[in-house]
Design goal:
Blueprint (H helix, E strand, L loop, with lengths): L8 E6 L7 E6 H13 L2 H8 L3 H15 L4 E4 L2 E4 L1 H29 L4 E6 L1 H6 L1 H11 L4 E6 L3 H9 L5 E5 L7 E16 L12 H4 L4 E3 L7 H9 L8 E3 L5 H9 L5 E4 L10 E5 L7 E9 L5 H13 L4 E3 L18
Parallel strand pairs: 5-6, 5-7, 9-10
Antiparallel strand pairs: 1-2, 3-4, 7-13, 8-11, 8-12, 8-13, 8-14
């Protein structure tokens, strides 16, 4: 992009407290030509650089001086010398042209969505199922978009980061009940049984909650258990909040390794199949319907940046089932008509 692509005319308003406002309608082409003449201080050489004739260039310099009402050059035949005003004008004209060119570059980049920066708050499930698709797509579609990934382990942490403007978008579990946050549905995961690989039940292809009765249920922490899981456990006569072991590691790798040590079982979204160590077995839950949990992209409703718009657009390409939903107010289903676990 060159400064020759600038608009034809720029109107400047010079404010003077003693003499009032002074309006100058200035040809940007004249500014560009002035810089070349001021650098060469020779009309012939300047005309050669600008691929124009000397008479035409000389007339345009006189037009510029007429526009601003100040002599910029002292003339002697084809040789020019800058006046004090001309020297100041050269410094300011260079800065103005550079600023305008930079502005146009940013505006054009914004039109492509390839400008700015965005901070993504990710969660363990998104680390496995979202980022491997999203990051290459962003690199391909918007190579100028800068992004940073901040990992969090809980929905509460991600909501807090959004509200504190620490992240621009967060991949977190639904439902999100804060009215300041809008969400876009990404994917739905089924819960699976995670138990020690050495346990006799690990030989079965699928497990019912009845099979698991008597084993310690490991909740991390109990308050964060998905309501659908709590409901399923209650229906099976397993009180997950009373007869369970609990800890607060906030780290799925630690959780899986503790389970692998043989101290109990848990129910996790199916992404754990891709990250589980060999010491644990992950088996489908034999229950109809199987409890599910949704992963959504959350962002502040007030955020209208190009970077966020094009990130959401890329998500919709990566996850064709993406649908936008308002944050439910009472834990309602994110997608109307999608079945949930019935009592």
């Amino acid at each position: 992009m060159t400064s020759g692509n600038f608009p034809v005319q720029l109107q400047l308003v010079v404010r003077n407290p003693f003499f009032g406002d002074w309006v100058v309608a200035m040809e940007l082409r004249h500014l560009r030509y002035f810089v070349v003449v001021a650098e060469e201080l020779n009309l012939s050489r300047a005309a050669d650089r600008l691929h124009t004739s000397q008479p035409s260039l000389g007339q345009q310099m006189r037009d510029l001086e007429s526009e601003i009402g100040v002599a910029l050059f002292e003339r002697e035949k084809c040789r020019f010398t800058l006046t004090v005003a001309g020297t100041i004008m050269l410094v300011q004209a260079r800065a103005l042209l550079k600023s305008l060119e930079s502005t146009l570059q940013i505006v054009h980049a914004a039109g492509r969505g390839a400008v700015g920066a965005i901070i993504i708050g990710s969660s363990p499930s998104a680390d496995v199922k979202v980022l491997p698709k999203l990051v290459p797509a962003l690199r391909t579609e918007f190579p100028e978009l800068e992004f940073k990934i901040c990992c969090r382990t809980s929905r509460d942490e991600l909501i807090k980061a959004l509200l504190n403007h620490e992240v621009d978008v967060a991949f977190l579990r639904a439902p999100v009940n804060d009215p300041a946050i809008a969400t876009t549905f990404l994917l739905r995961e089924q819960f699976m049984v995670v138990l020690p690989a050495t346990h006799s039940l690990a030989s079965k292809e699928s497990l019912s909650l009845e099979d698991l009765r008597g084993l310690p249920f490991l909740a991390n922490p109990p308050a964060s258990i998905c309501p659908a899981v709590v409901e399923a456990l209650q229906l099976a006569g397993i009180d997950s909040l009373t007869h369970s072991l609990s800890w607060d590691t906030r780290n799925i790798s630690v959780d899986l390794n503790l389970i692998g040590s043989g101290i109990g079982f848990t129910l996790c979204p199916d992404y754990v199949q891709q990250i589980s160590p060999p010491t644990v077995a992950v088996r489908p839950l034999n229950l109809s319907p199987v409890p599910t949990i949704d992963l959504v992209a959350g962002y502040l409703r007030e955020n209208h940046t190009h970077a966020l718009s094009f990130l959401l657009s890329t998500l919709r390409q990566c996850f064709p089932v993406c649908t936008q939903a308002s944050s439910p107010s009472h834990g309602d289903s994110m997608l109307e008509g999608v079945p949930t676990l019935q009592r």
